[in-house]
Fold this sequence. Notes:
This protein is globular. The longest helix has 18 residues. The C terminus is likely disordered. The relative contact order is 0.13. An eight-stranded mixed sheet has the order 6-7-8-3-9-10-13-12, sandwiched between helices. Strands 2-1-4-5 form a four-stranded antiparallel sheet. By secondary structure, the chain is of the alpha/beta class. The two termini are 42 Å apart. It has a domain of 97 residues. Bound molecules: iron/sulfur cluster. Iron/sulfur cluster binds next to α11.
Amino acid sequence: MSENLLEVNHLFKYFPIHAGLFSRHVGDVQAVEDVSFAIKKGETLGLVGESGSGKTTTGRLLLRLIEATSGEVKFEGKDILKMSRTEMRHLRKEMQIIFQDPYASLNPRMTVGDIVGEPLTIHKLASGKDLEARVQELLRLVGLQPYHANRYPHEFSGGQRQRVGVARALAVDPKFIVADEPVSALDVSIQAQVVNLLQDLQQQLGLTYLFIAHDLSVVRHISTRVAVMYLGTIVEVADRDRLYDRPLHPYTQALLSAIPIPDPDLEARRKRIILMGDIPSPVNPPTGCRFHTRCPIAFDRCSVEVPKLKDYGNGHFAACHWVEEHGGQQPVIDQATPAAAP
Ligand code: SF4
């Protein structure tokens, strides 16, 4: 499991802002800033961060659902950002997406059979009896019944609707799936079922996932490696256990310190890192390290120089001047305050 299926190099996405009578270009939302990472065949890369961190934009850029400002997205070695419409149409079979809100992403006027079969019709992969048989096979694969094909999305629960979304994504036999907050809209009890389904399907079908989420517990469960985003940049990437056990970046430490612990004694004793202020605007992001306005250990260099994502061994990357100047040591953040009582 070492070969890269996908490689992202120096990806940028700026959304222009226009204002005034003549719609003058007055600035940009710098949504994704110099993002680079790779996803190996058969792995799940978890992408985490607060809302507004650029996770969803990054996921959509990989599939060219929105166009990048610059950079490279290589799928099996070919830069998809340079592909023509025809080449892209062929590639769409290989790369699919599962959306956050299973209700909003399913057309309420179509039967589940038509929804799941639509990609097969669009790509001219099946018709007639073959199409019907493939739809039934897909419904079974995701734990639904063949007779569900004749029903409409509103007749299903949230978890079942997400299963329909998964079946639709699998219809064209993709290699890579962007799962964009696929369980965030579901009840906690249903989340585990959908996550387990995604894991089973990965094993059965050899799928590769980019799993976008803000819930770090879910990401820990499903991911092989995890990348942490803050204000459009990747601040840390590492194997799942390494990242959760020994986070290097202060932002990752703050995110992890906020995960609730089920044991009340441990919860009462643990320290939480409270970040001051809100995530700054991506229209006018802070200079240097974008996290310096909220970082408890920021120092002079942080506000002037952009930290590079550096490898500190075993594929553990972090973008932090403090970590670099201390030879890859984990910062101990004194600002820690006792966790609030639940
Ligand atoms: Fe904090 Fe500076 Fe490291 Fe950014 S570079 S995370 S501001 S110590």
